[in-house]
């Protein structure tokens, strides 16, 4: 009997097309909370390892692996790669993220999506406050193992670039994904946001301005914050508190691909 029940449940789950799941807001709510909880647990574990000093060997190994063995001030790769890393890391700066944030909020206000604009503003600005509060609380010194290839002005843990890139790009990626019913476009926007977030974090370690655990922690806390904010947005949208997308209805392509 138990085997039959389990088989019936699997058949029910696997038999539901992707567009059918979109009409189950409680699944999105629970999934978002569960994902955020996992990411927060991962952040807590990394923070504990950093505080106890157990992460030092891992950090040292990764940072030295990205430098010339005979000269720790020289990163691996040609000169253009070093310059490219600086360009990529700039995508996570306050200047670039601030410009994108203002552009998106202005667009939402111009299209009379005031609640969505308020949600984006609260999500991103809340992430900024969270990042700075954590930096102040941990006050981890910057790496001195290798020569930094970019100027820095704050403490090290967690990486502000990694945290705010995750908060901003994942939030905006989810917003863009919600404006389309096509699964391919949804995957494209979310995938692009993830690639940007990962590339920015890796560039911080390559440039020697962050320990790897700084970046890992930044990804975890930033993605957790974005997941919580997006889960709240889905709940508010279901209750009519945030304007739905114009084409939020299920498209025929989703039904066909489901």
Structural class determined from secondary elements: mainly alpha
The share of residues in extended strands comes to under 5%
Helix-strand topology string: HHHHEEHHHHHHH
Quaternary structure: single chain
Largest sheet: 2 strands, antiparallel
Q: Low-confidence spans: pLDDT under 50, at least 5 residues?
A: 1-21, 247-258
- Tertiary shape: globular
Molecular structure report:
The chain has about 260 residues and is mainly α. Helix 5 (about 80-90) packs across helix 9, helix 6 (about 95-110) packs parallel to helix 8 (about 160-180) and helix 9 (about 185-205) runs antiparallel to helix 10. Residues about 1-20 and about 245-258 have low confidence and may be disordered. The protein is about 70% helix and about 5% strand. The protein has one domain (about 25-65, about 75-250). It starts with a helix and ends with a helix. Strands 1-2 form a two-stranded antiparallel ribbon.
Secondary structure layout plus pairing:
Layout: H1 2-15, H2 18-21, H3 25-52, H4 56-65, E1 67-68, E2 71-75, H5 79-90, H6 94-110, H7 114-138, H8 160-178, H9 183-206, H10 212-238, H11 252-257
Antiparallel strand pairs: 1-2
Index terms:
single chain, 258 residues, mainly alpha, two-stranded antiparallel ribbon, globular, disordered N terminus
